[in-house]
Write a structure and sequence with these properties.
Blueprint lengths: L2 E7 L6 H15 L5 E6 L6 H7 L3 E4 L13 H8 L7 E4 L4 E3 L3 H12 L5 E11 L5 E2 L4 H14 L14 E4 H4 L4 E2 L4 H13 L4 E11 L4 H20 L6 E7 L11 E7 L1 E2 L6
Parallel strand pairs: 1-2, 1-4, 2-3, 6-10
Antiparallel strand pairs: 4-8, 5-10, 6-7, 6-8, 9-13, 11-12
Helix pairs in contact: 5-8, 7-8
């Protein structure tokens, strides 16, 4: 079997270099495990692409992959486009903003796929560390998981309640599985692949591996609300048993301000879903 490692990244110039360099040193040079390492750059406005390439990664801009198919914003779009430029039988995904992690993330995720033929999808489990403004570290990261994903699973897919990190950005899967799944273009990709895999192949197709501790850059609550909207849309589409309806909705947010009146901010949320790559 061949193995492709994919790192989706957007404006991660501060962290992408050490991630790429460390993985290549440990799992391509010291131990020849990986057959390719790709960074899929999602419209970064910083030097993410240049830093990743300098560290040794093969870099693609998401919008330049199969341009005749159009382009969307979002993490899911980057992962879907990666299916057209990778060749591995097994694909491992690692986020590009990690600050506390290790190469064992990759080997840990591959283990069940190499050991058990029935396993098609492997999700990471870990303690998520959150950095407070005063610099203290607390093990209560994963706001989107606790406030959105876990309640959705408890309500609609209780058989998945034992999945510790349903939104983990670190996961691995067989190409034969991923090419058959529809892929939401945004942050709903982790939830959709989990739900869709179990719906098609049962719980025995999924494994999870405890990788220890993980830390990454945190987004604001306002940005998290955009991701939460995408998750709710993905969950609704799976409950209906139909593809997500392509649309752009406006999320009205009221940022705090030192004025008597707070003007709302209108932020678009783009909802779309790519068809299975095997159908292209």
């Amino acid at each position: 079997m061949t193995v492709s490692l994919v790192i989706p990244a957007r404006d991660e110039a501060d962290t992408i270099g050490p991630i790429v360099g460390t993985i290549l040193e440990a799992l391509a040079k010291d131990a020849p495990l990986l057959d390719e390492l790709l960074v899929i750059d999602s419209d970064s406005i910083d030097d993410t692409a240049a830093v990743a390439e300098a560290a040794g990664a093969v870099v693609y801009r998401s919008k330049d992959i199969r341009p005749e198919l159009g382009s969307h914003e979002g993490k899911g779009e980057a992962l879907w486009k990666a299916l057209f430029v990778t060749s591995g039988d097994l694909l491992v995904f690692v986020d590009g903003d990690l600050t506390r992690w290790g190469p064992h993330f990759v080997t840990g995720l591959l283990g069940p796929l190499l050991h058990e033929p029935r396993t098609s999808l492997v999700r990471a489990a870990y303690t998520r560390i959150r950095s407070s403004p005063d610099g203290t570290l607390t093990p209560d990261g994963g706001r989107l998981t606790e406030l959105v994903a876990r309640p959705l699973i408890g309500l609609y897919w209780p058989e998945l309640a034992a999945v510790a990190q349903p939104l983990a950005g670190e996961w691995a899967a067989r190409r034969s599985l991923l090419e058959q799944l529809p892929i939401p273009t945004g942050y709903g990709v982790e939830l959709s692949t989990l739900v869709d895999t179990v719906a098609r192949h049962g719980l025995d197709a999924v494994a999870q591996v405890d990788l220890g501790v993980r830390a990454h850059h945190h987004r604001s609550d306002a940005d998290m609300a955009l991701a939460a909207t995408e998750l709710l849309a993905v969950a609704e589409s799976r409950r209906r048993g139909a593809a997500m309806v392509p649309q752009t909705i406006e999320l009205l947010q009221f940022p705090s301000a030192d004025t008597d009146r707070t003007e709302p901010v209108r932020r678009p949320v783009h909802l779309a879903e790519r068809p299975p790559a095997a159908s292209i």
